[in-house]
Amino acid sequence: MPVSSVAAFILAIPQHEFCNRSVIRAKALDDGCRRRYMQRPQSKGIVIVQIILRRASDLARACSREAAAKLRAFETNKELRLSAHSVVSVTDVTERLQTASNAVMQQLDEALELYRAQARIRGLIGQANADVVSPLLAERDTYLTPAEKALKAHLPQNPLLSYARGDDTDCEHNATEVAARLTGIRKQLEKTTNTVVNDVVRVPRLSEANHAAIRERIATIERRATDLNEELGRANFVQSITLPDEVVTILRKHKIIG
Fold first, then answer.
1. How far are the Cα atoms of 177, 186, 187, 195, 197 from residue 190, in angstroms, in the given order?
2. Looking at beta carbons, which pairs linking 66-72 to residues 24 or more positions away fall under 8 Å?
3. What is the three-class DSSP state of 13?
4. Is residue 208 within 8 Å of residue 173, measured between CB atoms?
5. Buried b (16+ CB within 10 A) or exposed e, 149-172
6. CA–CA separation, 152 and 157 (whole Å)
């Protein structure tokens, strides 16, 4: 479906400033709530089209869809069926074969040019992302996500308990409690001569204070992740690219833009 609903500011520019190059520029702005459109006379100048990253991504996907549709059309109709009743001469056969092959080659050329336009748009998006979006993605994917996962792995499965006691040798991470438990074991060993007594107390390495500190660090990471996602969302409406002449021509040829 043509992506022709781009909100844009059309800016007329004198021809001599661009050395007679045919360039189209439309500055697309989207505040998330309203879309505005304004056009100045183009008779004395040319127009340059500049679009926000979100719209650029839409156009790239549209190019891919259109190209795939053209290729599917050939896949479903690879053969030319000729009837002995309608084709009666070598000239007829030659014309039909030439027409069929020309149509297929044209579809193939158009699919390839759509993929080429998609690649140009994606490349421009990548360049625009290099300064703003890429650092944010790197922070999210290489620090925030693995850090949150690592911190959560050090919390007890049951958030209400820092240590799930299994038997009398399990003890909270508390020096007073551990010392008392060890004293009790020693006394039991002194009184027992023929009974096996477990003389080891199992204590979790992290205290509840440690767990609280970890939870606070997780909360800080989650807040940063929320802010970062908002920054990424804003970047799609702030960052923009300028479409090259060739890309604009292809998009208009296939009615992806008006």
1. 20, 6, 5, 11, 10
2. 66/111, 66/114, 66/254, 66/256, 67/110, 67/111, 67/112, 67/114, 67/115, 67/118, 68/111, 70/107, 70/108, 70/110, 70/111, 70/114, 71/107, 71/108, 71/111
3. strand
4. yes
5. eebeeeeeeeeeebbeeeeeeebb
6. 9
Give the integer Cα–Cα distance in Å for 225 and 219: 10
3-state helix, strand, coil in the chain (%, to 5): 55, 5, 35
Cross-strand partners of 27: 9
Write out the DSSP string of 116-147: HHHHHHHHHHHHHHHHTHHHHHHHIIIIIHHH
* Amino acid identity for residue 133 in this structure: V
Which two three-digit tokens encode residue 65? Answer: 């869809």
Query: Is 66 buried (19+), middle (13-18) or exposed (0-12) by CB count in 10 A?
Result: buried
Q: Element (H or E) spanning 47, and its range? A: strand 45-47
Q: What is the pTM of this model?
A: 0.56
List, for residues 170-215, the tens digit of each pLDDT value.
667 778 888 888 888 788 777 777 777 777 888 888 888 888 999 9
Domain ranges of the chain: 9-132+239-253, 142-232
CA distance 109 to 70: 10
pLDDT of residue 177: 81
Q: What are the b/e assignments for 24-37, b being 16+ CB within 10 Å?
A: bbbbbbbeeeeeee
Under the banding of pLDDT at 50, 70 and 90, the label for residue 144 is very high
For residue 81, CA distances in Å to 84, 96, 191 come to 10, 10, 102
Structure tokens at 68: 């795939």
What tokens were used for 62? 């549209």
